[in-house]
């Protein structure tokens, strides 16, 4: 894939979240993760247990996804919690086993809305601080290398348009197939193929640009 050829590692850590932040369950359509009528009944103990399980199983992945979709690191926790709040409110209509596709679709929309509200696609990578969720076990040198690679990947992804970025991230970083991306985003399979092709081309251009910049600064 394009990432392995450029020397990037897709793995990234994220911080935890208090289960109490999620709201009550309400039904929704899987194809539109940010919509759906609210119901009056209170969530059951089974609903609370299911939401807690979804949080434990998917929080790290969702945090990583909203970051890769362009959410600044200092807003990633809030965006991630918003994804799970939406999931909790639409819990009744999420088929067991389909939680990840729902969370992915919700993360795409939450990230897009947050970027618009901030008036910027993301903060400058050089100003980022290491996430609190980073595993403290690796050495300081290893963590520094991971952070640098993460920052360089973020800078490269920032060179892609939103449509190309989302499709590229879902395929190259999250491992979804083209049909899965088409279903998730509600677009034709041919559109996915076109976006992936153009996304790879743009990615390679941005990688070459970054390498040239680093070479001028003596960074490579």
Structure commentary:
The chain has about 220 residues and is an all-alpha fold. The protein has one domain. It is built from eight helices and no strands. Helix 7 crosses helix 8. The two termini are about 25 Å apart. About 15% of the residues have low confidence.
Provide the fold topology:
Blueprint: H1 2-6, H2 45-68, H3 73-89, H4 99-118, H5 140-158, H6 162-173, H7 178-185, H8 189-216
Instruction: Please tally the β strands and state the result.
Output: 0
Overall structural class, as computed from helix and strand content, comes to: mainly alpha
Summarize model confidence as the mean pLDDT: 77
Largest sheet: none
Number of helical segments with 4 or more residues: 8
Give the total of domains.
1
> Between the first and last Cα atoms, what is the distance in angstroms?
23 Å
Rounded to an integer, what's the Rg over CA atoms? Answer: 18 Å
Can you tell me the overall shape?
Answer: globular
SSE sequence, one letter per element: HHHHHHHH
> Which percent bin holds the helix content?
55-70%
- Residue fraction in strands: under 5%
Describe this structure in a few short sentences.
With about 220 residues, the protein is mainly α. The chain contains eight helices and no strands. Helix 2 runs antiparallel to helix 3, helix 2 (about 45-70) crosses helix 4 and helix 5 crosses helix 8 (about 190-215).
């Amino acid at each position: 894939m394009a990432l392995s050829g450029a020397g990037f590692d897709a793995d990234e850590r994220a911080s935890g979240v208090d289960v109490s932040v999620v709201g009550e369950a309400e039904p929704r359509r899987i194809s539109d993760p940010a919509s759906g009528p609210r119901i009056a009944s209170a969530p059951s103990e089974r609903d609370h247990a299911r939401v807690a399980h979804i949080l434990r199983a998917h929080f790290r992945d969702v945090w990583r996804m909203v970051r890769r979709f362009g959410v600044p690191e200092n807003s990633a926790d809030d965006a991630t919690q918003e994804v799970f709040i939406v999931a909790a409110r639409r819990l009744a209509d999420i088929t067991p086993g389909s939680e990840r596709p729902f969370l992915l679709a919700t993360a795409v929309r939450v990230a897009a809305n947050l970027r618009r509200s901030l008036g910027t696609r993301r903060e400058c990578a050089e100003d980022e601080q290491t996430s609190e969720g980073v595993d403290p076990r690796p050495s300081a040198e290893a963590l520094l290398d991971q952070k640098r690679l993460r920052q360089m990947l973020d800078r490269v992804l920032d060179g892609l348009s939103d449509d190309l970025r989302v499709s590229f991230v879902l395929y190259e970083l999250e491992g979804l197939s083209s049909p899965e991306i088409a279903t998730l985003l509600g677009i034709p399979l041919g559109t996915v193929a076109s976006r992936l092709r153009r996304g790879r081309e743009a990615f390679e251009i941005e990688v070459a640009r970054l390498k040239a910049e680093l070479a001028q600064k003596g960074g490579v």
